[in-house]
Write a structure and sequence with these properties.
The complex is a heterodimer of chains A (305) and B (246). Chain A has 305 residues and is mainly α. Helix content of chain A is 72%, strand content 5%. The chains are: A mainly alpha (305), B alpha/beta (246). Chain B: InterPro entries: AAA+_ATPase, ABC_transporter-like_ATP-bd, ABC_transporter-like_CS, BCAA_Transport_ATP-bd_LivF, P-loop_NTPase.
């Protein structure tokens, strides 16, 4: 039981990170109908920018960890958002009225560009950082000596995710920008007739998705204590899977799918085999899609209008 | 000519979808305070004309003048800021937004104070009380008539000077269609709203309108007052008395 509880905590933390990335996939799919295959690499870029900012602040002699983390968070969100904006501007927008697969192929190309660019610029080796946030709480200790640990970093990951989701949900459901985004998702021509600058709204979607991915990158860096140029690939595929599992286009679905993938992966590793954790995650995806083709919270494509 | 500048003047307008030319040099004028009807068979180019005013598709040649200003190349989303609103073909309400949000989308199109927004909303509710009853409901769950009311209400929320209405009675029960035509007449008489209305229901439209144009294959073939056009034998034959609707 204690072991189960511990794995539950671990799975929720991993799932939070996947969920933050998955939102970027699902938002972009909702508004422009394409899978942004470069999004996983945007997450990787976010991790690197967090690392670089962190090292710069340390070398400047800053020691207040909360301050450092806040600055790192804001800087990595801002710069990664700029990456997201630029990618859309140069790789996707010129192809928007092209055939449907064109932007998707461009996205795959952009993914390679970002991976290789990071490898060349930052080197191929794994970049570790010393543990920044240490300590934690022992929730329970059983008679046989097994303890349930909740580390501070796990708390930070989960709380940050919840806060971001709250802000993000408010933004999408209550603000003018969010309404414009949903209008573009449902009918771009009509949105334009109502004065919505569709290009700008799509840009903002990429900016927000990238900023959330940057937060995930920072969380990953703090949680695992390392980044490398290839980490966007697997994490991206997992988050994409999460988005599909939750129902692509659905924002709560992306988060739910992220948690599901995180939990499946963690429990499979804990009870069966670490080697086959990805097989387990993808197998469950396939099973879910056979019985629920639109994912957990997705809506059917055909809709009465 | 001593008449004042028309609110909207369309001059030798050409537009095409790919290689198919839908407008082949159209001239239309709409004066402030008028209701102008545009009638014609399916595929004549009526809806294309409406959309070309908004730059979708862009005009290939000719001019669109609004209050004397050339707006032919103004980006689509900026046209709405000029207080031209459209209730387009197929209504195009946002199905996964509430009625309230659909109306707010209209209000967002132009700058207005909260008080102005509220006053406009009350005006829309007076014209279409059903929208008040359905205020919190999702657009996609409304009936066809209610969706049409919402599409017009949404256009009105931007407090337009010129309202473009594309087939507001299409697919509606006669009673609902009459309600909608009554609302348009009220808006014109009481609020001084200028309206360009596209209709296949030529009888209704020409009775409502001050003036009308007949469009055939991307060209204006006839123009006149509503009453004049209703008397023309070729109009009666083509659009009123068992004329083919197709």
């Amino acid at each position: 039981m204690d072991y189960f509880a511990q794995q539950l905590i671990n799975g929720l933390v991993l799932g939070s990170i996947y969920g933050l990335i998955a939102i970027g996939y699902t938002m972009v799919y909702g508004i422009v109908g394409m899978i942004n295959f470069a999004h996983g690499d945007v997450f990787m870029i976010g991790g690197f920018i967090a690392l670089i900012t962190f090292l710069i602040l340390i070398s400047l002699g800053l020691t207040a960890i909360p301050l450092i983390l806040l600055v790192v968070l804001l800087v990595s969100m801002a710069i990664t958002a700029l990456y997201g904006w630029t990618i859309e501007r140069i790789a996707y927008r010129p192809l928007r009225h092209s055939f449907r697969l064109a932007p998707m192929l461009s996205a795959i190309g952009m993914s390679f560009v970002l991976t290789n660019y990071s490898q060349v610029a930052q080197g191929a080796r794994v970049k570790p950082i010393p543990p920044v946030i240490t300590g934690g709480y022992t929730l329970h200790e059983s008679a046989d000596g097994f303890v349930i640990q909740l580390s501070n970093i796990q708390i930070i990951v989960v709380i940050t995710t919840i806060v971001l989701l709250a802000i993000f949900t408010w933004l999408v459901s209550r603000t003018r920008l969010g309404r414009d985004m949903r209008a573009c998702e449902q009918d771009q021509t009509m949105a334009a007739l109502l004065g919505v600058d569709v290009d700008r709204t799509i840009s903002m979607t990429f900016v927000i998705g990238a900023a959330l991915a940057a937060v995930a990158g920072l969380m990953y860096l703090l949680y695992y204590g390392l980044v490398d140029f290839f980490m966007g690939f697997v994490a991206g595929i997992k988050a994409f899977t999460a988005a599909v599992l939750g129902g692509i286009g659905s924002l709560p679905g992306a988060m739910l799918g992220g948690l599901a993938i995180g939990l499946i992966e963690t429990f499979w590793s804990a009870y069966f085999s670490v080697e086959y954790k990805d097989v387990a995650a993808f197998s469950i995806l396939i099973v879910v899609l056979i019985f629920m083709p639109t994912g957990l919270l997705g809506r059917p494509e055909v809709e009465k209008v | 000519m001593t008449s004042p500048t028309p609110l909207l003047a369309i001059r030798s307008l050409r537009a095409a979808y790919g290689k198919i030319e839908a407008l082949k040099g159209v001239d239309v004028e709409i004066n402030a305070g008028e209701i102008v009807a545009l009638i014609g068979a399916n595929g004549a180019g009526k809806s294309t004309l409406m959309m070309t005013i908004f730059g979708k598709p862009r005009a290939r040649a000719g001019q669109i003048l609004y209050e004397g200003r050339d707006i032919t190349d103004v980006p689509t989303h900026e046209i709405a800021h000029l207080r031209i609103a459209q209730s387009p073909e197929g209504r195009r309400i946002f199905p996964r937004m509430s009625v309230a949000e659909n109306l707010q989308m209209g209000a967002d199109a132009t700058e207005c104070t909260d008080a102005e927004r509220e006053a406009t909303l009350q005006r829309v509710f007076t014209l279409f009380p059903r929208l008040k009853e359905r205020y919190a409901q999702r657009g996609g769950t409304l009936s066809g008539g209610e969706q049409q009311m919402l599409a017009i209400g949404r256009a009105l929320m931007s407090r337009p000077r010129l309202l473009l209405l594309d087939e507001p009675s299409l697919g509606l029960a006669p009673l609902i269609a009459r309600q909608i035509f009554d609302a348009i007449r009220t808006l014109n008489r009481q609020d001084g709203l200028t309206v360009l209305i596209v209709e296949q229901n030529a009888n209704h439209a020409l009775k409502l309108a001050h003036r009308g144009y007949v469009m055939v294959n991307g060209l204006i073939t006839l123009a006149g007052t509503g009453a004049e056009l209703l008397q023309r034998p070729e109009i009666r034959a083509a659009y009123l008395e068992g004329g083919r609707h197709g």
